[in-house]
Amino acid sequence: MAVTLPESVLAQYERFSLYNSPYPAHDGGCAIDLYPGTLADGRTTAAPSPVAGTVRETRTVRAPPKPYAPEHDHLILIDPAASGPLAGLTVRVLHVEPSVAAGDRVERGESLGRLVRAGFFAPWVDNHLHVGVRDPDQNPYRASGSLPLELGVSVRPLEWDGTGRVVSTGDTYAVLDSPAHPDPGAAFVGVRADDGGVLDGGLPHYDGGGLLERPAPVDTAGAPAERVVSLNGDRLGVADGRTIAWDDATVTANGEPITGLSLFCARDADFGAKLICPERSFERGELVRVRVRSSDER
Fold it and tell me: Ranges for the DUF8155 domain (predicted)?
């Protein structure tokens, strides 16, 4: 059973991704990362609840050991309100140090606590809430096992020719001015694949990604059919339904390899291609050409 996240849930956040993660909890688009708006320093701490409901439990959980982050995170379980769109299900939220406790009633958009960065985060990942939805009889503590998620909003595919100028940088990433959001705040957008649909995921530094906003073709038996996915003529991988298995490929910026591209859906004015590049640095204003080279071309 798939669960649809309505516009009232998603509209609270500036960005989201179903597939941009290395963790099995996101396999098949069974979890979503929700990114609130950022503060002046590029980070955010507020953690707006995706739903109204009652907090069932909060607990501290282990996180992968990383030299730059704590080895613990926090899990919040919420029973959605009976009048809400996710009534009868269990909502699980990670990456929030809770200011709420079991039995507390929360409204949609009310802060659950303070967003935190644990060992689940790669250094280039912005603060966000990790959200999954389960049937009430499912184990709420296991990392994997949440229900597949569908989007109750449309995401506009933006064509991108692979070029842009650097507008911001960090220690491990650079952001380009293209593709630019044509109407910030009004709708979610994402990078368009050559044959339609919106690309979602870490290419190729995570194992796979997603192709949103395009109905999956079916074979003669009515089952989802596989199809090749490309960007600017560069083959990225093969989609089975909406899930893409990336090829053995390398992303290059001005002809030199980088870790990859971060692909997501956004409605903020700062949307643009995000290069993951801890091994390289770029200057603001620098013109960059991005390509994807398959193993056969290397």
Answer: 4-150, 156-293
**Shared-domain flag, residues 158 and 269:** yes
Three-class secondary structure of residue 26 per DSSP: helix
With b for 16 or more beta-carbon neighbours within 10 A and e for fewer, the 164-199 pattern comes to bebeebeebbbbbbbbbbeeeeeebbbbbbeeebbb
Question: Which two tokens mark 81?
Answer: 């309100």
Do both 281 and 267 map to the same domain? Answer: yes
In a shared domain, residues 120 and 245: no
What token pair was written down for 279?
Answer: 């091994």
Whole-number Å distance between alpha carbons of 69 and 147: 29
Distance of alpha carbon 59 from its chain centroid, rounded? 24
pLDDT in tens, 30-84: 999 999 976 544 556 789 999 999 999 999 999 988 888 888 999 999 999 999 9
132/129 Cα distance (integer angstroms): 10
Say how far residue 274 (Cα) sits from the centre of its chain. 13
Number of domains in the chain: 2
Kindly state whether residues 189 and 142 are assigned to the same domain. Answer: no
> How many Cα atoms within 13 Å fall on the side-chain side of residue 193?
27
Domain span at residue 188 reads 154-297
| Closest C-alpha to 64, from 119, 142, 118 | 119
**Are 38 and 172 in the same domain?**
no
Sign of CA dihedral 153, 157, 163, 165: negative
Tokens found for residue 144:
């994997």
In the chain, what is the straight-line distance between the N-terminal and C-terminal CA atoms, in Å? 42
